[in-house]
Fold this sequence. Notes:
Helix 5 (about 145-170) packs across helix 8 (about 250-255) and helix 6 packs across helix 10 (about 285-305). By secondary structure, this protein is of the alpha/beta class. The chain has 12 helices and 15 strands. The mean pLDDT is about 95. The strands form 3 sheets. A 6-stranded antiparallel beta sheet has the order 2-1-4-5-6-7. A 6-stranded mixed beta sheet has the order 8-12-13-3-14-15, with helices on both faces. The chain has a 3-stranded antiparallel beta sheet with strand order 9-10-11. Helices cover about 45% and strands about 25% of the residues. Bound molecules: adenosine-5'-triphosphate and magnesium ion. Adenosine-5'-triphosphate (ATP) binds near residues 36, 37 and 315.
Amino acid sequence: MILKKIELVNFRNYESLKTRFYKGINIIYGDNAQGKTNLLESIYVLGITKSHRSFIDNNLIKDSSKKAIISGAINNGSLDIDLNIEIENNNKKLKINGTNIKKVSDYISNMNIIIFYPDDLELLKGSPQIRRKYFNLQLSQLYSNYFIVLNDYNKLLRMRNEYLKKMNMNINVDMNYFEILTNYLIEKAIILIKMRYKYIEKINLYCEKIYQDIGNINNFNIKYKPSIDIDIKDDQKSRSILKKYYDNYLKYDIKMSCTNYGPHKDDFEFLLNQNNLKIFGSQGQQRIAILCLKLSEIEIFKKYRQTTPILLLDDVFSELSDNKKNNLLKYISKDIQTIITTTELNNLDKKLIKKSKLFKIENGKLIKVKEVKESE
Length: 376
Ligand SMILES: Nc1ncnc2c1ncn2[C@@H]1O[C@H](COP(=O)(O)OP(=O)(O)OP(=O)(O)O)[C@@H](O)[C@H]1O
Ligand SMILES: [Mg+2]
């Protein structure tokens, strides 16, 4: 997959920007606070519809402007697709090839992105919510059905919680309807848990080898820890396991006015020799673990979507040793479009710079420094 060009209007510190990217490696360099991260963020928003670093969409609009526009042209391996997002009043309008798209699920799996950025470590060190959000997004990029089921699950969860709140306040509710809600919730939960299991299984097929290559250590894997475990081979059995849980914890759920168990409480662990890296890992081991996860995801995209995702690397080279940098480059520089930002060109290998398209960024203005001939 290739991002051919992008156009921004009033996005962050960009009043207007129009540029074409090379199908291989693109390097954007510039001092602090010039707009490097903002540019990668705009590409991320174009694909994912949300920012990786701000929950509030209005933050993306340039100060004192009303509307931000991001447009881009991608080629997904066989087709050219135009994508367009307008952000105004915390609202987003999505377009594919000029046609309005109502459902995010119809939009989100068109442009696949994997981003590496300095705060990535939070994925390992932070709360389970951060990991759930991450894996939900990765699964949604891969399977639009996952995104649909997840939205249904969240809707049912909100409805069930409303009922629990009423029961807590002794308001009479229709218990038959509550039962139906719970059963629907269980059906969606089974799909999500099964897809999460399968995804992590796929990741682990690649992860250990990559970790060995980059970190020179064996026995690394990621473990999915569902809050209620099921039998992924037997839906009937899973139904009764979940049903029993929800029955047994009904009193507790009413007391807390919310559903205490289910996929919305799941977690994922990064294990090295069975030890949780969150607790036992060094900073270096943790960083490699995140790199491995993301490099494995590239392999999964290649295998299951027959295309490579677009890689965004925000200032990640300054924190890796030369050896690890080279190992990482070995993985990424093969026919995969990559957009790298850095404050210091010296952080990057000369050979890499030679084969890359080079841009300099100054106060929201992008200056092309070096082209690569498309045949190279
Ligand atoms: N909504 C906005 N409107 C205008 N300017 C903004 C907006 N949001 C952020 N900025 C500004 O954009 C500038 C560039 O930010 P960005 O994070 O892209 O810098 P950077 O080049 O990645 O810097 P660093 O090397 O420090 O990471 C900052 O000065 C920031 O304050
Ligand atoms: Mg930055």
